[in-house]
Every structure is written in C-alpha cells, then in structure tokens.
C-alpha cells in the first residue's frame, strides 16, 4: 500500500515516529512536512531524536493567519497528491496541517485515515476543535485512542470506519523513557538548563514544576496571559518553562517579577520526557503533555476550562483550573492525593502503531 502522510507541528512528529517505523516494514510511505513548525527546536530536533524518516516533501508554509496558512498547505498538498496518486492519506491530531491534508485528499476522493480521531473539548472557539470535527467528518477511517473518542463519534452519528487502537503517544513514551533517563540522569538535565539560565542553583529532581503555555485561547488574551504568569511566579517551587515562540513574543511586556521562572527555549522530546518524569507536577495548557505526565505518573494541572483527555481527571491525577491567579495557585499547590490511588489506564498497551497499521491495511480489521 502507498500512503501519503502529512505532518507539520511538534505533536505530529511525536506520533509519526512509531507509525512510520511500523508501516514501512511492509508498505510505502511518502512523508510530507507542511513546514507549519520550522525552528530547529520546534522541528529538526524531533526528527533527529526520534529517528523519523526525512520528509519527501517540505512545503515550507511557515507561520501566518489560519486562512493563509491552511490555504498554502491545501494548495501544496493537492499538487503532491495529483503527482503521487497514493492509495490513502494519513493525518494526525487537530492542527491546521491536519485539516489541510484531510480536505485536499477528500476533494480528490482519496481515503483519509485520521489518527487521534474522536477527541472533543466541546469548545468550538478552539481552532483545534474546529479542525478535528471537520477532519473526522471527511475521514474514511477514524483511528481512536480511547473509548471516549469512539463514543464521541457515535454521538455525532459517525459509526462506520471507527476503530479503537489505543494512544500512539503512549507507544512513543514507552520507547523513549529509558533512552531519556540514560541520557539525562547524572545531572546532564540540569546542565542543559543552566546553559540558558544561571539562577537555578536551588533546583532539584522532584523539586520543580514543569510548565508549557502556548494555546491561542490563553496567549492571545492579555488578561489570561498575565494571570497565568503572575500565578506561576508566586508558586512555592521554581518553574521550568520551555517557552513556545508565540508565548515568548507576548510576555516581554508583562510587568511581573519572574524570578521564580526558569524560562528556556523549546526543548527536544527526550529532555522534555526526562523533565516531565522528574517534575513535582506539570502545569500546562497542552493536550499532549497532560497525557505524557499521566503516562509517567506525574500529577498535572491543566490551565483550561475543558480537556479532551477526561480519563486523566480520574483520581485527580490531572485537575483543570480556570485562568484566575488564586485558583491556579490553589489547584497547583493542592494535596497530591492521586499518589495514593491507582491510575486507571485507558490508553491501550503501547502498541497503537501496530494496530493502526493493521486497521489501515486490512480495511478496519485489527488482530485482538
Ligand atoms: C500548533 C497547533 C496546536 C498545537 C501546537 C503544538 C494549530 C491551529 N495549532 O499551534 O494545536 O498544540 O501547534 O505546538 O494548528 N512559531 C515560530 N517558530 C515555529 C513555529 C511557530 O516562531 O517553528 C511562532 C510563530 O510566531 C507563529 C506562532 O508561533 O505565528 C504560532 O505557530 P502556529 O504553527 O500557527 O501554531 P501553534 O501555536 O504552534
């Protein structure tokens, strides 16, 4: 089978690694990078660390408003589809690259396979929610990470082509946590951070919060952004903050004393995995990081009103917080009762890449 796969942003690189390895054992894959993420630390480092094959095409679309960015991708992907004539097109997740790929293929009647289908926050103001709803409804096969995702699709009347495969990000965590531990224990993790910021002598394993903030709903609202940074600055432990470029650009004008924050550039997957597993808690508005924290048994506070990953909320491993300074501080500094409770595992067994391949090649059938 010849499949054309679209990737473009960090979370897609992480998902592509185990799938490409599995699928290429018996099939052909053409990899298209839209160029949505293009900085070395937002893109190249993931290819190097995770051994993702070099893309066959890079559209180099870069940043822009949603319409302009999605339109450039749509045009570029259509040209490649007409040239390559694949048997199907695979997209991951909910970014603008996902929607552009699905739309281009669907118009050409090329079957779309959507990995991480069926997720819903039920907040249609989020660009990701719009992208995933539209992608799900034009996909031939909906590869769902959890039972919740299957149920969400059924509620919308989508019942054919729905396959539960487990979560492919769990595959990537399992494959890489040992490598990350080997590379970054013995203090190398600290050296990587010290290189960028010298005021961190007080930091120790399990003695810091790890935070990422990049969602448009938080960054593009000045009051919310200020509340988040004020709360993080007043926490009882230092906060390591690998900062997305969009957030970096926006915080320069905030009049907040940030000496509790260790602000560093975006980091690669392995260091992020190591920092997540050693953190006292993760504080984030990312979708993927909530789950990575859960897989690594690190408590999490999510700075959003909803989460697509409701399984992580059970036993308070993950707790949602509204963007209010006092609420964030109270939720983050809560008693960690979750550590005494079992962690229900609803994300499969870490073999999602294999199941996704089987489903695609066998028309939806997977070997149980
Ligand atoms: C995108 C996804 C989001 C995902 C995130 C992962 C959409 C709508 N959003 O958000 O769901 O969680 O990726 O990180 O697709 N920038 C750089 N260098 C880069 C990439 C981005 O400087 O390599 C800056 C640019 O100023 C750009 C801004 O970040 O305008 C936003 O980038 P964009 O790709 O549009 O969205 P993300 O916020 O990264």
Structure write-up:
- Helix 5 links the parallel strand 5 and strand 6 (141-144).
- The relative contact order is 0.12.
- The strands form two sheets. A seven-stranded parallel β-sheet has the order 3-2-1-4-5-6-7, with helices on both faces.
- Helix 7 (168-184) packs across helix 12 (269-278).
- The chain contains 15 helices and 13 strands.
- Helix content is 42%, strand content 14%.
- The protein is α/β, with parallel strands linked by helices and 368 residues long.
- The structure holds uridine-diphosphate-N-acetylglucosamine.
- Residues 9-11, 36-39, 42, 63, 94-96, 127-128, 214, 245-246 line the site of uridine-diphosphate-N-acetylglucosamine (UD1).
- Residues 9-11, 36-39, 42, 63, 94-96, 127-128, 214, 245-246 line the site of uridine-diphosphate-N-acetylglucosamine.
Q: What's the short version?
A:
This protein is of the alpha/beta class and 368 residues long. The chain has helices at 10-23, 44-50, 66-84, 96-107, 127-137, 147-155, 168-184, 188-194, 216-219, 222-233, 245-251, 269-278, 287-295, 325-332, 352-361; strands spanning 2-7, 28-33, 57-58, 88-92, 112-115, 141-144, 162-164, 209-212, 239-242, 261-264, 281-284, 300-302, 318-320. It contains 15 helices and 13 strands.
Main beta sheet strand tally, sense and closure: 7 strands, parallel
Helix/strand structural class:
alpha/beta
SSE string, helices as H and strands as E: EHEHEHEHEHEHEHHEHHEHEHEHEEHH
Indicate the mean pLDDT. 95
List the ions, cofactors and other small molecules found in this model. uridine-diphosphate-N-acetylglucosamine
| Major sheet strand order | 3-2-1-4-5-6-7
| Apparent shape | globular
> Helical proportion?
40-55%
The rounded distance between the terminal residues' Cα atoms is: 22 Å
Poorly predicted runs are none
**Alpha-carbon Rg, integer:** 20 Å
Total strands: 13
The number of helical elements comes to: 15
Give the DSSP E fraction (strand runs of 2 or more residues): 5-15%
């Amino acid at each position: 089978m010849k499949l054309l796969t679209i990737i473009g942003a960090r979370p897609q690189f992480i998902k592509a690694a185990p799938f490409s390895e599995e699928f290429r054992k018996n099939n052909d894959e053409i990899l298209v990078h839209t160029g949505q993420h293009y900085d070395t630390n937002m893109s190249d480092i993931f290819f190097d660390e995770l051994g993702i094959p070099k893309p066959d095409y890079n559209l180099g679309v870069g940043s822009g408003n949603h319409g302009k960015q999605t339109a450039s991708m749509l045009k570029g992907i259509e040209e490649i589809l007409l040239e390559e004539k694949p048997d199907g097109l695979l997209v991951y997740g909910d970014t603008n690259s996902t929607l552009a790929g699905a739309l281009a293929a669907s118009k050409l009647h090329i079957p779309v396979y959507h990995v991480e289908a069926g997720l819903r926050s039920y907040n249609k103001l989020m660009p990701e929610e719009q992208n995933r709803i539209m992608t799900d409804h034009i996909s031939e096969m909906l590869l769902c990470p959890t039972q919740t995702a299957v149920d969400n699709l059924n509620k919308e009347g989508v019942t054919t082509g729905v396959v539960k495969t487990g979560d492919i990000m769990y595959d990537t965590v399992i494959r890489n946590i040992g490598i990350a531990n080997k590379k970054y224990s013995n203090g190398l993790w600290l050296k990587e951070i010290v290189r960028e910021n010298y005021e961190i002598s007080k930091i120790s394993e399990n003695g810091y919060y790890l935070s990422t903030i990049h969602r448009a709903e938080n960054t593009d609202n000045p009051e919310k952004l200020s509340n988040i940074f004020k709360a993080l600055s007043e926490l009882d432990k230092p906060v390591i903050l690998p900062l997305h470029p969009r957030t970096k650009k926006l915080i320069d004008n905030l009049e907040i004393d940030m000496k509790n924050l260790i602000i560093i550039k975006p980091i690669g997957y392995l260091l992020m995995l190591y920092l997540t597993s050693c953190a006292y808690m993760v504080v984030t508005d990312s979708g993927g990081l909530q789950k990575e924290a859960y897989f690594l048994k690190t408590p999490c506070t999510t700075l959003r009103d909803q989460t697509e990953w409701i399984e992580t909320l059970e036993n308070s491993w993950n707790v949602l917080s509204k963007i209010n300074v006092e609420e964030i501080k109270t939720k983050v500094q809560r008693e960690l009762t979750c550590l005494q409770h079992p962690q229900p595992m609803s994300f499969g067994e870490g073999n999602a890449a294999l199941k996704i391949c089987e489903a695609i090649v066998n028309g939806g059938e997977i070997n149980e």
